[in-house]
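Backbone-to-sequence.
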C-alpha cells in the first residue's frame, strides 16, 4: 500500500468520524465531502492523524456526557420525594420535608451541571 493510499484512507476515516453541527449534516452532500477531501490532501499526515484523534476524543466526551445525563435523569425519577398530600399529616410536615429534599436535590443537580460545564464546555455552552 502506497503512502498516498494510506493518506487517502486516513482522510476518509476522518471525514467519517468528523463531528459536525446539525445544520452542517442537513446540507451535507458529495460535493462538500470532495471539497473537504481536497483541502485535507494538502495537509501533513500527522495533522490528519491529530484530527482523527481529536474527533475520537470529542465522540468519547459526548458519549460520557450522555451517560451522565441518563444517570441524572434516572436518579431524578428514582428519588422523587414529593408525595401527594397525606390526610394524616395535619401540619403539612411530610409535604414540607419532601419539598426540602427536592430543593436540596435540585441544588445538587445544579452543582453537577456547573461541574459538567467546566469539564465539557463545548457541549453545554
Amino acid at each position: 500500500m502506497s503512502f498516498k493510499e494510506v493518506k487517502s484512507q486516513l482522510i476518509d476515516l476522518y471525514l467519517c468520524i468528523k463531528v459536525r453541527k446539525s445544520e452542517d449534516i442537513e446540507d451535507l452532500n458529495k460535493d462538500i465531502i470532495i471539497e473537504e477531501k481536497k483541502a485535507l490532501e494538502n495537509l501533513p499526515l500527522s495533522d490528519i492523524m491529530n484530527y482523527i484523534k481529536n474527533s475520537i476524543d470529542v465522540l468519547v466526551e459526548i458519549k460520557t456526557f450522555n451517560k451522565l445525563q441518563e444517570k441524572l435523569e434516572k436518579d431524578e425519577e428514582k428519588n422523587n420525594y414529593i408525595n401527594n398530600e397525606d390526610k394524616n399529616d395535619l401540619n403539612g410536615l411530610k409535604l414540607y420535608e419532601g419539598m426540602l429534599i427536592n430543593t436540596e436535590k435540585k441544588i445538587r443537580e445544579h452543582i453537577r451541571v456547573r461541574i459538567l460545564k467546566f469539564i465539557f464546555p463545548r457541549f453545554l455552552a
